[in-house]
Amino acid sequence: MNRKMKDKDPQPVKVKPQRSLLAIRNIRCARRKWEVSRDQVDMLKGLTEDLELSVSAGDLMLLDNKWYVTHAGLLRVARRSHCSGILVQPLRKLSDPFSGRWVFKAIVYKSIRSRGFVGYGDADPSNVSSMVHGAEMRVAETRAVNRALRKAYGIGLCSVEELGWAPRPKAPELPDQLKTSANGNNSHHNGQPRLRDRLCLLIRQYQLDAGLVKAYAANYCGTATLRDASRDQVETFINDLAERAAKNRPELICQLNSYAKSQEVAQ
Asked: I need a surface site. Which of 119, 156, 190, 253 has the fewest CB within 10 A?
């Protein structure tokens, strides 16, 4: 009798603790970074369960109350899924290097026998942020890869790099030197966005510490404060910061942390 009862006992449900812990970490990190609603939290749980992406690692971003996946997040999905390869090539007939217009085609092969998933990406000065003007070729290539990866792995989220506009998330408060400046750093210049807006987006995109960026900027411009720096100096700093963050973010973070030590000594 006891044996029969044991046979009828329901099997314990297998729980995936790693994904549960990742969801908890993602929710905590998201609440520290942004003001998230219940619906956004529920969606984040689903994304964590389906894609196993990390908010702290920069795989997901919340812009204008919508979740976006990043290029790093898509590559993480591809690597975890043992992607066989990605073929990327420019479409020269549709591109015009002289005007800064580029069109790329990317093919993602999920396995050796896969026929491939195709994605196209285009970029020109009119549909990229002013921060990356002059890098339209790399933007177009990234967009093509992102679209092909999203098709291959059934990811409905748009990627940040595919946006044709500069989103304005609620960024951390920036120093007063960038809010108001005697050199006009807070105004539009020849139709270009404000330097403060560009730096806000850069800090949010690469998850940088605003205070450390301020210290680094003053040292970079060779002035006691940013208020003493010219607009050209600040603009050059922002362009250089964007390029370094895109090429080697860990190295940039390491350099920014050195300013944290300097601030502690100063205090």
From this structure: 190
CA distance 16 to 30: 21
Domain presence at residue 62: yes
**Domain that includes residue 146, residue range:** 77-162
The pLDDT tens digits of the residues spanning 33-86 come to: 899 999 999 999 999 999 999 999 999 999 888 999 999 999 999 999 999 999
Cβ atoms of residues 148 and 107 within 8 Å: yes
Give the length of the chain.
267
Nearest to 120 by CA among 134, 100, 140: 140
> Do 110 and 152 belong together in one domain?
yes
> For residues 234 and 151, what is the distance between their CA atoms, to the nearest angstrom?
40
Alpha helices in 55-166 (DSSP H): 71-80, 136-152
Alpha carbons within 13 angstroms on the beta-carbon side of residue 233 total 18
Please return the burial class of 217, using the count of CB atoms within 10 Å of its CB with bins 0-12, 13-18 and 19+.
buried
**CA neighbours within 13 Å on the CB side: how many for 181?**
24
Q: Are 21 and 45 in contact (CB under 8 A)?
A: no
Tens of pLDDT, residues 103-151: 999 999 999 999 999 999 999 988 887 777 888 999 999 999 999 999 9
Number of domains in the chain: 3
Among 124, 140, 162, where does a domain finish? 162
CA 12/CA 251 separation, integer angstroms: 47
